[in-house]
Structures are given as structure tokens and as C-alpha cells.
Amino acid sequence: MLINRLNTCLTVFTAICFSTVQSQFCGRAPPIAQARVVGGQRAFFGQIPWQVSIQAFGTHFCGGAILNDRWIITAAHCATAVSRGQLQLVVGALDITKFDSFLQMIPEQRFNADLVIAHESFNRRQLLFDIALIRLDRRINFNGQSQPVCLPQQDEDFVGQMGLVSGWGKLSENDAGSSATMNFVQLPVMTNRECQMMFSNRDPPQKVIIRNEWICAGFREGGRDACQGDSGGPMTVFQNGVWELGGIVSGGFGCARANSPGIFTRVASFVSWINQKIAANP
Fold it and tell me: Which distant-in-sequence residues (6+ apart) come within 8 Å of 191 by Cβ?
């Protein structure tokens, strides 16, 4: 069964970009060498500065990415999991259990949600059009730990490139909860046909129709993947000297299983929608 990667602990709950979506300063962070997230490694301060922790009642349950100083992008199943008033968004954090730690030279920033825009065609059961925008209640103060990611061109597919997936999700499928520290993993991006064929090679075979608005990444042998708690977080690709947002963690079949690549919302398919919504809600 295709499941989202929302932190399961929440199932108990029933680039300076002031006036434009993006700027020339987006996507600036050090390139990351070929590297849980599952099977990954810990991030360090400033390595993934667009990463956002989405929380409710002080508990992390999803990720997101900074688009500009007022807007966060995430999965619709994350943005609509709780009411707008319960959403808390944290940027510039590394260890989400030690806010304002003396080890963190630049403190994290916390925000409330001013506006939530889920895609009009979002289907929670099938995870279709699983994309949303969240406007913050005030502007982000950009620094070495908080920076916007770049949007891709509308025709980019990133096939054959390595996508970097980051977040505070479970380190293995059987873990009880999220990781305290941010982790990342790199996964190869494949064509939708390759993705569909890989699922058909599962044991037992899994019939999955890979939609055009999805993008898949993962290894045939498994072992590395996103997991619950990583939902809504970014899959970025480093090209042309900047990091571009190729996908949003959406769903999958378990975590890091063989012939079970991760399924992400294909951001390139929604660039016009993103621009329109942000322009209409300054």
C-alpha cells in the first residue's frame, strides 16, 4: 500500500526574495559529496539551509523547504494534517531537541502559519497533487543556516542525477519516532517507466501507475530512502552551481525496501502554480 511519510506519531491527532518567488541568491550551499533519512548521514550546520521542520504541539512531523523569506513549500498531506493555527515552522535548526543550544552559533527561527494553500486537486488517499505552500507570519532573517532553495525549470526531469533527500525522519522503518538530528541521503533519479518496472519486480509484484506529477528516486537493492517524518521535505539536485528543488517527499512502500523507490512530487510540474499562488498572495 502506498503510504505517506508523515511522522506516524501524529496519527493520534484527528536569494533575498522580498517581492519575487525566487532570486539569484537561492540554492547556495556547499556541494555534498556522494554520500536516516534511512542509510544516510548526519548533516552539519549550514549544509542544507532551506530545510524546514514542520511541527505541531512541539512535535516534528514533516519537513519543508524555504522558497523565499515568507513562503515554505511542502506536501499537501503535511500542510493539511492539522489546523493552520496548530502549525509551527522552524528554520535554521539541526537538532530539533536542542533549540538555542550553545553549540548552535546562529539560533533557529520559529514561525506560525499565516496562510496555507494546498493544491486544489490534492487527493490524500492516492497522494495526487501532493503539494502545498505555507506563508509565514513574518519574514525569515536569512543567514548561513537559513537560505532559500531554487525552483527548477518547468522542463527539467533530473533523470540520471543524484537527488539529495534530507530531514528528521525515522532512521529505519521499525524505529519508534523521528531522528533528533537532521540527516541526508543521496538517491539516483530514474524515469517513471523505470520506477514502474521496479515496483513490478517487487516480491510480491506491486502494480503502481506512476503519475506524470511524480518523480522517483532510489536504489534497486534498497537500503537508502526517506521514511516517516521526512514527508514534505526537499529532494534537491546540484546543477549549474546551485541546488534546485527536484521533488517533495510524498510517499512510498515501506522504507528502503528493495525495488521500492521513493515517490516524490515533481516540482517542475508545478512551477507555474507556485508562481501564481505566491504572486496572488503577497
Answer: 157, 159
Dihedral of alpha carbons 276, 85, 143, 233, sign:
negative
77 annotated active-site = yes
pLDDT value, residue 12: 26
- The single residue of 77, 166, 178, 225 carrying the catalytic annotation is 77
Active site residue 231: yes
Neighbours of 21 (CB within 10 A): 18
Q: 45-86, pLDDT tens digit by residue?
A: 889 999 999 999 999 999 999 999 999 999 999 999 999 999
Model pTM score: 0.88
Q: Dump pLDDT digits (tens) for 254-280.
A: 787 878 899 999 999 999 999 999 999
53, 146, 178, 231: the active-site residue: 231
Q: Given 130, 166, 178, 225, which residue is catalytic?
A: 130
CATH code given to domain 162-268? 2.40.10.10
Give yes or no: 121 in active site: no
Domain boundaries, the chain: 162-268
